[in-house]
Specification:
The chain is an alpha/beta fold. Helices cover 43% and strands 15% of the residues.
């Protein structure tokens, strides 16, 4: 785990199920603890990026809806409301630790278009220069299938590759990748290290666990595959206790570790 311990530029992705209760309301205690730890890592001299989900669920909760809207226009409206609420809370908590944040709402076209991609990279680099913490989300308020990635797991890997991050940490409601479904198989064991993401490894992913989120373990494996192919060490771990992040950066085996594959192209 030396690569993680020594990582200077780190992208964290936090899922909806980590940020919210099943009611859709924000898990304030967990969010506050996560922010304190990310602030501490920034104080260590690392450059931190947070890719956050949760806008639609938080918006639905603020509106008093019993579940996430299913129709696209309703999801877009909930995202508009939830994004304001999320950024208000992130700004409040990060400010308590004297850190400045900035918001980037990204769609697929922002990355695929050369000029817009360069503008995006410049924005990230200058935020790092100013010591600010970028908070990234997909632009759900204009989300249609043709212009978005569809899940923030993929987006986090794209961002990590875009900014040449040293590590990608995906926080979710599972401890990592298991040899079977731990909810159904008592013999299922946590896989600590994955050397290569093969079709057999992907077959272990199963489906989505939480009704709040949009992905599941398979989207996280796809993100890990994308990141590691760019030479970026990746960890999938539980976000239920953000203090585990400290152990990870102290060199302990937490969650499932995917080692970045170095090549001539990615150094």
């Amino acid at each position: 785990m030396t690569g993680i311990r020594n990582a200077k530029r780190v992208v964290f992705k936090v899922g909806t199920s980590t940020l919210t209760y099943p009611t859709g309301k924000t898990n304030i205690r967990r969010l506050a603890k996560l922010v304190s730890i990310l602030s501490d890592l920034q104080n260590e001299g690392r450059e931190i990026v947070l890719v956050t989900s949760g806008a639609i669920s938080v918006g639905a909760g603020k509106l008093g809806l019993k579940e996430r809207p299913q129709e696209t226009p309703a999801r877009q409206a909930a995202a508009c409301i939830g994004q304001c609420e999320l950024m208000f809370m992130y700004d409040k908590f990060f400010t308590e630790y004297s850190h400045t944040i900035g918001q980037l709402l990204i769609t697929k076209s922002d990355v695929e278009n050369d000029e817009r991609r360069n503008n995006l990279i410049n924005a990230f680099n200058n935020m790092f220069k100013f010591g600010a913490i970028p908070i990234v989300n997909e632009n759900d308020s204009v989300a249609v299938e043709e212009i978005v990635y569809g899940d923030n797991d993929s987006l986090s890997a794209i961002v990590a590759s875009l900014i040449n991050a040293d590590a990608l940490i995906i926080l979710t409601d599972a401890e990592g990748l298991f040899s079977g479904n731990p909810q159904l198989d008592p013999d299922a064991r946590l896989i600590s290290v994955v050397d290569e993401i093969t079709p057999e490894v992907k077959a272990l992913a199963g489906g989505a666990i939480s009704k709040q989120g949009t992905g599941g373990m398979i989207t996280k494996l796809n993100a890990a595959e994308l990141a590691t192919s760019a030479g970026i060490d990746t960890v999938i771990m539980s976000g239920s206790d953000p203090r585990e992040i400290y152990k990870l950066f102290d060199g302990h085996h937490i969650g499932t570790y995917f080692k970045g594959k170095k090549s001539e192209n990615n150094g």
